[in-house]
TrEMBL record, chains A, B:
Name of this chain's protein: Transcriptional regulator
HTH tetR-type domain segment(s): 24-84
InterPro entries: Homeodomain-like_sf, HTH-type_TetR-like_transc_reg, HTH_TetR, Tet_transcr_reg_TetR-rel_C_sf
GO molecular function: DNA binding
Annotated TM spans: none
Source organism per UniProt: Brevibacillus panacihumi W25
Record keywords, A-Z: DNA-binding
Record flagged with keyword rRNA processing: no
An individual GO BP term: regulation of DNA-templated transcription
Entry keyword Signal: no
DNA-binding residue intervals: 47-66
Length: 224, 224
DNA sequence: CAATAAAATGAGTGATTACTCACTATTATA
DNA sequence: TATAATAGTGAGTAATCACTCATTTTATTG
């Protein structure tokens, strides 16, 4: 059915994405306040009155810059998708996968994980909002899948298969391998706060990445 | 600070948990309607008017049984925690880990994954709500961590360390191993709909579990 | 500096919100 | 069958919602 809700819905925001430099102070303030509130209490629980107050702005000013409350959400979320998708898929991934394709899969994966972890750490709040709202807004969910997964998946599949042919990876269904890589990455990146705070401190991010990749490559079982 | 928000907050709902049998038809209907709506559009986006309509009940009836809208949420979420936590940790896990502790780690894990996958499949909507709201409600998040993770973690840690001593698992930090198991499980269970629908069909749940466990144990790298 | 445009304002809008309450209908108990 | 308790109702309530618009403030330009 009405397929391109991404194209029609979010993509325009991505294209119309303003530089921060061409926003007024007030507009930037509205975005900042929205990110804060959406991340703290969610989109629906944050009222435009609150946003205005937090931003130090009249409520009407919000609607001068964004024609609806949902527009604010999309304006908040779009840049993250761009950072997640465009640089990742079109630059980072292409670079990582094409330029580094000769390197061992382990190194490629380490670089990938490091890249993603940094991105998430730098955009914690907006990513929280993004994931949060992806549950309910079709546009966002589809955009997320379209940008983050769809293109990336093909590349990863190709790399996986190439590395299988080269004997570097075991012969397993590509899908199973892809999912394993994906789950390791998401787990590494998303479930940091599940454990006790003192357990975090025990290992640095680099160590966490190293262990994650090591286990992904070699498993947890011994090889007696 | 005011620590036991779980005890004070959710636990009472768990204890006061009514049998379905001692609910009226209307009350059950309210719960069913709430689950449906909360899962579809989220807690905040679902109005009590909608719930009443969906449930075929006067709006006042809702507030006869639940003193606030949030109470409905807790009533929806509590049973899942009980099913997830108590039986899981206290029964399933104890059984799996104590009775089956002699079995290879691989088999224990397979059993665990199978158990969790079924639970999620059977409670898809409520688990969606649970995770969703855990983002924002401290009580729910803390309850989730307290019930699902905290106790389970210790048991898993002990098993992991025992299996390391027995030479069945590699010598790695327990934390890294625990996280790997956790990520595999969550990934297996939560990210089924990320892939194309036709890719699901390709492998059965049992096969997915088998590959997940295999990769967890042996990794994706070859052992030339 | 005057004229024009853009940005910002906040009181006001009708719709909707969670929730109350006086009341009726049903069921359980004595 | 009378009494009491529980279940159910829906109109009503104040508060809040996203959003509008006539007006004022600030910035830009000729």
């Amino acid at each position: 059915m009405n397929k391109p809700s991404f194209e029609e819905g979010l993509l325009q925001y991505v294209e119309e994405l303003k530089d921060e430099s061409e926003m007024t102070e007030k507009q930037k303030s509205i975005l900042r306040a929205s990110i804060k509130l959406f991340a703290e209490k969610g989109f629906h629980a944050s009222s435009t009155a609150e946003i205005a107050k937090e931003a130090g702005v009249a409520e009407g000013t919000i609607f001068r810059h964004y024609k609806s409350k949902k527009d604010i959400l999309l304006a908040v979320v779009a840049p993250v998708l761009v950072k997640f998708a465009a640089p990742f898929i079109l630059k980072d991934i292409r670079e990582i996968f094409k330029e580094q394709a000769e390197k061992p899969f382990k190194e490629v994966t380490t670089e990938l994980f490091r890249n993603r972890l940094n991105l998430v750490l730098q955009n914690e709040k907006t990513i929280r909002i993004l994931l949060q709202e992806a549950f309910f807004h079709d546009e966002i969910r589809e955009a997320l899948i379209a940008t983050v997964f769809k293109d990336a998946k093909e590349m990863v599949y190709k790399l996986i298969e190439a590395k299988m042919d080269a004997g570097e990876l075991r012969r397993l269904p590509s899908q199973a391998v892809f999912r394993a890589v994906l789950h390791s990455m998401i787990g590494l990146v998303m479930f940091r706060q599940v454990l006790d705070p003192d357990e975090f401190a025990e290992y640095s991010d680099e160590e966490q990445i190293a262990y994650t990749v090591d286990i992904l490559m070699n498993g947890i079982g011994s090889r007696e």
